[in-house]
Structure formats: structure tokens, C-alpha cells
Amino acid sequence: MTSAPPSWRIQALAKRPDLIPALAEALWECWGAVFPEKTVAVRTAGLHARTNPDRLPTTVVATATDGALLGTASILFDDMETRPDLNPWLATVFVMPGQRGHGLGAALCAAAEAEAWRLGVPRLHLYTFDKRGYYAALGWRDLETVDYAGQPTAIMVKDRPV
Fold this sequence. Notes:
The protein has 162 residues and is an alpha+beta fold. It has 4 helices and 7 strands. The model has no long low-confidence stretch (mean pLDDT 91).
């Protein structure tokens, strides 16, 4: 038995810069309470800087068949200012509420990781407050636990497949 094809498309943000305003708003709504300094304007500027198809930083976005924004994931040089020794990072993995639980987050992670591997990155890092098990199931392993933004935070790593 075959499964139905996904009802989304994942592509480089560089191909859909029109999504940046809605994406910046959605990211603010999700993480604005944790990182209030990353305003919508700051997030908008950051997203514009991630429209690189052939170098870091870069971002992928998922859209529905009608073009509506469904989610995103990025590869950044630095995502945790307290750990500048670790880079680059899988970051800003986000799926719109109502679209979660259908594999889109995993697909976005895989697409962003594939971009990193294509660009020659040997190892990625990520941090998560509460999704350690989720990322472990995607092949990430624990590096350490730190206090970040006032919360216990897992730093995880994943190496490029051989």
C-alpha cells in the first residue's frame, strides 16, 4: 500500500520572499515571549538575510498546494550567543499551528539538513527547550544541557552522513 503524496511543497525561501512578512509574524507569535528582543522587524531583516541558495545562512519554507505558508527551518552560523564556538545550527524549525503532527516538521528538518550537507557542512547543532525526544528520533544526539534563556536547554548534534 502506498501513502498519499504530501500536501505541501518545500523550497528555498529565496524562491518565496513574499512569505517573509507572514513568516516573521508567525515566528514572533511563537517565540516572542522567550526572545522579546527579536521583534517582527528584527525577524524580517533576519529572514531577508537567509535567502541565500548557495551559502549560509539559508532557509527553507513549506507551502500548501495553494501557496499558503505552512512552516520553515533554517541553517544559521550562530543561533546561541552563549556558544559561539558551536556552528552552524539547525534553527527556527516551525510548523504553523493546525499543521503539526503530520510529518512536516521532520520533512523541514530533512530539507534544511540536506542543504547544509550539500554546502559541505560536516556537523550541525541545534538547541531545544522541550523537543529533545523529537530530535533524537530524527537522528540527533545529545551534546550537553545548559541553562539558556532561563530554561534548561538541550544542545544536540548531527553529523553529515558518510
